[in-house]
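hi! just following up on the protien thing from before. the input was this:
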Amino acid sequence: MRRDPARVAAWRQRAVAALPQLARNPVVLGASAAVAGLAARAAVEVAVEVARRAVGVPPARRGPAVHVVHHVVHHVHHVVHHPGVPVVVRVPLLPPPL
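and the predicted 3d structure came back as:
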């Protein structure tokens, strides 16, 4: 799919103009804080798993943070790279058993 540079530039200009207004939205601020906390927990879980493997301890069951981050990244990938294709988001309540 080829994009018209003029349309892209116009869209980018409108998006940048809306950023200050969006950044002050309390819902956006709350969601950003929640995502940052979730990403930090996922990073800690992955680091602990890497450390466990390095010393020869069997891997522990991953917590829900890793699975939620995985599903969010997968969803964002489809929205960005496959526009127009419907995406069904299935976020499990608990991680799958090992």
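Residues 5-62 form one domain.
Helices lie at 5-23, 26-54, 64-81.
cheers
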